[in-house]
Structure formats: structure tokens, C-alpha cells
Amino acid sequence: MADATVPVSHEPTAEETHLRHHFANSAQQTDASTLGMWTFLITEVLFFGGMFMAYAIYRATFPDAFASTSEYMNVILGGTNTAVLICSSLTMVLAVRAAQLSSRKGLILFLILTMIFGTIFLVIKGFEYTDKWREHLVPGFNFHYAPAQFEHNAQILFFLYFCMTGMHAVHMIVGLGLLTFLIVQAQRRVFNANYFAPVEMIGLYWHFVDIVWIFLFPLLYLIGHRT
Amino acid sequence: MSAHVPIPTLRALVSVWAALIVLTGTTVGVSFLELGEWNVVVALLIALFKASLVAWVFMGIRHSNAMTRLFCVAGLVWLCIMMFITFSDYTTRGWTYQAQPWSHPKAGGSH
Q1: The CATH number of the domain where A64 resides is what?
Q2: How confident is the model at residue A39, as a pLDDT?
Q3: Please, which residues have CB within 8 angstroms of residue B20's CB and are 6 or more apart in sequence?
């Protein structure tokens, strides 16, 4: 029995080449990507959440030792890095906007700017790690702490500092790799106003990494009262 | 999100960026004030507000569908469950059993 309402399969048009065959249309495909990305981000929230949990317990247990470590944290570098990451989030969202406007040059420009900000962040982080090594604040390897009564408990904070900022930096490095991939794809004219989901999804990841730092900065650099 | 999401205005994106920069300055400024226990509360509230701004505008939650919003909130709920259960352990470890007037006489184990 012939049914006139059965849709006839057709060759995809130029605008539809990105559409996978198991999706009805572009909107459904993008919704599925978005939901999948958020699901991944939930696992990331809980991954970093475990470290924030450990931080909360030890800070509540040793408040004075944790407060004493703020003497050794470089707020100028930490604050600069916060601003650098916020700028990189702006350029990332501008890259998505450029893709929406079908501006290939704008997209590539903003992706490169995002990579530059991300690299500046990692370089500053590198200088901070070098300073920590010079000041004998790397737990386990060369730890020596001036207020001797806090030596053991302050070491916990520095252990958490290196774990949390280290895992954050690993995420930044992965992000830089993903941005490189996007720039190559953009060069090949893969993206246009109808298809830019990968830019958007990697943007979600990049903003999530920014959010992690937004919490890390006050919790690691601004514990003790400053005068 | 190709067709059904409006293109954000430059003005909206730059305003959010400016707000995030100002709030970063604020959180550093507040760390110089003597607020005792409230320092960490204020710092976390500012961080939470900044994170919400990023999620709402930059991550596009303001235009996303109900399912995506539900997933976003679910992540926070699970984080709260982890914090609640862990702290219910750590904060009560010092508590020891003491016989109360309404306890059964034999429950304490002593005669």
C-alpha cells in the first residue's frame, strides 16, 4: 500500500551535509549535542567537586594553618590570571557569535585570541609554579614552611593547590588542543550560520574551565585576611 | 541551536565581561576587609554570582531548553548531595553517646 505521507529520502543539500542520518533535523542534532556536552560537564563538576570537598574539610579542620598560606600566594598573578580567563571567555563567545554571523575571518580571529589568552594563563601559571619551587613550597619534594607550627597542616593546602590548579591547567591544555582543531576546521570552511555546533560545544567546555577558576581563585589565594 | 537561537548582541556580551572583571576586583577588595567568618561567605557568593553570569549568558542557558536546564541544575544538586553527606560525617565525628533522661536504663550498658 503506497502511503503518500512517507517522506521521500533525498540527497542532502549543501547546507545539510553536517546532518547525521539518525537525526530528523539540525535543531534536534544540536539539542542532542548540547545535552551530551552538559552531561559531560556534570561529571566534570563532580570530578572537581571531589577536590573542593577535600579542600572544605581540611580548611574547616585547620583554619589557622590555611589562613597563614595566603602570605605566600601571589594575588597579583592570580588576579591577572582570573582577568585573562574572563577575557578568553569573552573571545570564545565572540567566536561563536562570528560563526552565527557566517564570518569565517571573525571566527578564526576570535579562536586565535582565545588561544592566546589561554596560553598567557598557562605561562603565568608556570611562573607561579617556579616561584613556589624556589620558595620551597612544593609538598613532598622540597617543603619548608616558615611558621613552623603550621608546617604539616599548611602542606595540605599546598598539596591541594597543586592538585586543583594542576588539573585545571590540564583542562586548559586540552582546551587549547580543541581550539586548534576548531581553527583547522574553520580554515576548511566547515562552519557556517547553519552549522557551528562544535564551536558552541567546545565553547561550553572552555566556559566551564573558566568557572572552575572563578572558584579556585578566592579559595586558594584569598583565604587569610590581608592588611 | 542553529536556527532557533537569537544571535547575542555585542552589548550584552561585553556588559557581562565588564561585570565579571568588576566582580573579580570586588572579591580581591573584600579580602582586605576584616569580616571574620563572613569573608569566605562573601567570596563564595561573588564567585557563585560570577559563575551564574557565565552559565546564563556565555553558556547560553538563558536560551536553552528545559531539559538542558534540568541537567545543569542536576549537576549542582549532586554536588550538594556529596557535600551534605560528607559533612554530616566529618562534623559529627566528635559526638559521643551520652545517656539521656529518656534513654532506656539498660541501653547505656552500665548497671
Answers
A1: 1.20.120.80
A2: 96
A3: A86, A89, B50, B53, B54
- Domain total for chain B? 1
Residue contact B3–A83, C-beta within 8 A: no
Residues, chain B:
111
- Does a structural domain hold residue A15? no
Structural domain includes residue B104: no
C-alpha grid cell, residue A155 = 602542606
Q: Is residue A16 part of a domain?
A: no
Q: How far is B2 from chain A (nearest CA, A)?
A: 5
A226 Cβ neighbours under 8 A, 6+ residues apart: A70, A75, B31, B32
Domain range enclosing A198: 27-221
**Rounded-to-10 torsion of CA A36, A50, B25, B12:** 10
Q: Which pLDDT tens digit goes with each residue over B27-53?
A: 999 998 888 888 999 999 999 999 999
- Chain A residues closer than 8 Å to B1 by CB: 27, 30-31, 34, 197, 200
Q: Which of B7, B9, B11, B28 to mutate to test the interface with A (most CBs of A within 10 A)?
A: B28
